[in-house]
Amino acid sequence: MITCNELRLKDKIDTFATFGALGNGGITRLSLSPAALAARDEFCKRCKALGMEIKRDDMANIYATLKGEEDIPAIIMGSHMDSVVQGGNYDGILGVLTALEAAETIVTEKIPHRHPITVVVWTNEEGARFDPAMMSSGVIAGKFDKELMLESKDREGITFKEALEDSGYMGEITNRLNAKDYMALVELHVEQGPVLEAEKKDIGIVEGVVGMVNYEFTITGQADHAGTTPMKYRKDALFAACNIIRYLHDELDKLDSKLVYTTGRMNVSPNIHTVIPDLVKFTLDVRHQDPTVINQAIEIIKRVPEEVDRCSVSYKELWSRKTVAFCKEFIDFVEKNANEYGYSSMRMYSGPGHDAQYIADMIPTTMIFVPSQNGHSHCEKEFTPLHNCFKGTNVLLQTILDIDRI
Ligand SMILES: [Zn+2]
């Protein structure tokens, strides 16, 4: 079977790791920052050298296209180049570089293809500079209002609109990905979790993105002096919050073992070591692929009493997302190709969100995961061994070629 070039892939990974490098093995490459623009320039230079035609849309998403034998809708692959602060060299960028390597293999090996083949770079996936995450794919898919997005500000007060206009990468609205000109999307991404490595699998066959709900609890007690108030009179909001979290864990653990839930944020007021806390707010993020299990989790949340440890309790849903199912035919291609290359693989759902989940509403879509060493991601330790990147690229290439024959 045809394979990509491992050394050429290494060169891509090493080169792009310099854009935003901090000297600690990772990068800070915030969306549309000078480092991100330098990476975009290098990407475009390499695409042009391969004879690809480059277009940009109004959200500065880049589409680099290899002409097909026929004038029919294109197959698209790629990911994002922006990172979080002190992020790694694999999240997002590996999806772009493996797509570029797959395209380069098609060119150098003169592999015939009917459909145009496009490599996409999405703008502002991380949301680390401009909130929200997956902004540009979301605008294209109609999930976000563009005018509101343009007003999103970074910490320096620069709006997304200003950054977009200054970037030199803003293009035409008519160049956006759409269901008429594109027929399939495949995004390769690092797993960002420990499962593939622990299960000793090379390839994650991604069936979809798990649904989630995010709730915020508010516990209201009474602030009093830590030295004078007997325990039995206290209305300690933090103590009540602890008991609620314990209850939630005990009950949620009784549901399916694939359910994951997290209290990642807690604000304690007044947060003074000599004062009994009177107000605690904490979040509960719950994720599972099956909506029935999510609903069971919501039932558990609803059973939290209005009063706990003499404190009043309320909660509200901050946001939610439905499970996204990817294209069955493409999922099967990924599995078949992993098998044919002799790579180990497993089917799984993505816990994190990705651009592909929005595009899945517009055109048939799937994703390919490769392992993250020790499960690390969104940090400088993020690492995927080269041979795993290479295997992922081969499966990506073959999957694109399979789709080309549909
Ligand atoms: Zn990513």
TrEMBL record:
Belongs to the peptidase M20 family. Pfam families: Peptidase_M20. This is N-carbamoyl-L-amino-acid hydrolase. It comes from Anaerocolumna aminovalerica. The keyword NADP does not apply. Zn(2+) 1 binds at residues 80, 91, 189. InterPro entries: Amidase_Cbmase, Bact_exopeptidase_dim_dom, Peptidase_M20. The lineage of its organism: Bacteria, Bacillati, Bacillota, Clostridia, Lachnospirales. Keywords: Hydrolase, Metal-binding, Zinc. Binds 2 Zn(2+) ions per subunit.
